[in-house]
Amino acid sequence: MIFFNEQSQTFVLKAANFDYRVKVINGYLAHEYSGKAVPDEDMAYRFAPNFAYSPADDSGDKLHFLNNLPLEYPCAGIGDFREPSLHILNKNGMTSNDLRYESHRIYAGKPKLKNLPATFANDDEADTVEIVLVDKPSGIEATLLYTAFKNLPVISRSARVKNIGEDSVTLLRALSLCLDIENTRLDMITLSGMWARECEVQRQPLKRGKHSVGSIMGKSSAEFNPFLAIVDRDATEETGEVFGFSFVYSGNWIGQAEVNHMDRARVVMGINPYDFAWKLDPGEAFQTPEVILNYSCEGIGKMSRQFHDLYRNHLIPKRWALTKRPVQLNNWEGTYFDFTMEKLLSIARVAAEVGVEMFVLDDGWFGKRDNDKSGLGDWFVNETKLLGGIKHLADEINAMGLKFGLWFEPEMVNPDSDLYRAHPDWCIHVPERIHSQSRNQLVLDFSRGDVRKHIYGMIKDVLSSANIEYVKWDMNRTLSEVGSAAAASGRQRETWHRFVLGVYEMMERLTSDFPELLLENCSSGGGRFDPGMLFYSPQIWASDDSDAIERVKIQHGHSLVYPVSTLGSHVSAVPNHQVGRVTPLKTRGHVALMGAFGYELDASQFTNEEKEQVRAQIEEYHRYCHLPRTGDLYRLGNPFEEMYDAWVFVSKDKNEAILQYIQILARPSCAPRIIKLKGLDPDKTYKIEQTGQVLSGAALMNAGIYQHLTGDFESSLLRLTTI
Length: 723
Ligand code: GLA
Hints:
14 helices; TIM Barrel; eight-stranded parallel barrel; ten-stranded antiparallel β-sheet; 3 domains; Immunoglobulin-like
């Protein structure tokens, strides 16, 4: 529910048990309160210390007023010296802006954001308020969009900045969210990492100054996932106030908490202002991507469950969000580039025999592509390597009862390719500068419609030529020397964002033209694992590190924000190719079973015993996977600090649960580990399928159960059902 209290000039946004109040004060839009629901009462007292300014005659101390006011969308250059949301260069080369409240509109539902992925909601699921702020002298109108979800303590925010003047202006920054938080004892949680080590949970106390995370790599990045949480210093998985911020965007971003001299924290999030500029001619508007603000007064675990529910029900394509995904076998780690038609079919045959449901052909099937030095951009089959072509392969695979899927890397080109030779200016580049390569490749200029059209045409031809039911969309480098041969000099710095919009447009076309296609994203693993991508693809390959023990941490980190059903997660061969570790097949299965499950190895090498084990694993997946996919996740361990991790997924009706326990290293002379479950119904009685033990939910949660495994990298999977 959202309403405007005329008398107190307050917008009251009521999400489920989360109030967010915004007040018009001296014409400025200020943040009054956010937190647990409170009755509608006048909270003007919260601004009392700031009232020493009168806008009528501009007397008093305006700078003191502004520098202390918790502004909802602060402008640069007028006396608020904390981080601004908006910074605009006007026709005379000057930059100060001063936005004042003008009007508003409240309505049911949630609008789409032009050309951008965003959460969606029906009219009965959310309400929206658009608050219009205007800066008359510079001819700028900023419309702040807030949507309050009815069933979740979630508010989404974005802004639309429009030039309503007569001269062109240039946006130097247009962030999506600013939120000032009063509490002085706060920690900040971020997800930091790099290739093969994505989403490590970092938690640190906020002190005065700015603590900033983000990306200027052209993609959301593995270095920092586009998320941060501001939590009470004492917050745990179950207790304390938590504000989670998740950015629905896949390019350069910034997330920052700034604690000022008054010990107030200002959080901002949006497109990174680094090298960003966007020219707005009269009448033009710029829409920022949205930030999801997720509030929990019961700790970090609840924040995660709310993110999971939000993204499953309001972001991921409905066709797939709650749907069981086919068990896939991807050939990448099994063969790398070294395969023939016969080799692939021999792998697929065994895959079909053990219960795999889809065979995915990864990199190396197109152009001249025997290694990573050539071929990207030439999206037509290499018949010397794949005798009979994709259609023949897909038909053979289908005849075995398997679906067929294919890898593409649409945004990239190798200099050694027909495409590059024909169109050397189609890559992102700065003339007369070296075109820096990474993995021997350059980035195609997806800010250009002609480039996108050509690449899409090739991909569509391949997808239309055979029964291809899945695409893995990869993106294996960052952006450098960013410039576009098609853009005017005054618009070059728009290329970063236009590139991302181009990628979104391609994904939109792909998923509209092939509505049944299962799209999986990937960017050297989890280099672009973000809500923007999840809007198009229900699953993303979480990491190129397929080692089960490393994956425990990687999956734990991702689970802070993302439903685990979105994490592409495969059993690979041992010794593991990334870390050389040897882990039991059982544990590899238990780790992978929680995500979008599959195998990534040469199945034709399976021993008979392994075939039996894999068959049983796949059966386990079919029996249990509805719980990770649709249930509530409770994290019971912390693999960043302890030698184990444990997750329990509980069905929404609390009649069923699955407990996954992974032991990292074994230790001698230790008492068995007690795992106290969470999220069960204390008054129900549960039976553990594997042990026959019968216990109340209360006992399982308060007294816990013992886990005592011998050996490193061991695991167990227990299913509980009510009796
Ligand atoms: C990236 C992906 C891998 C694989 C290779 C192929 O590294 O993350 O899964 O697809 O590219 O080149």
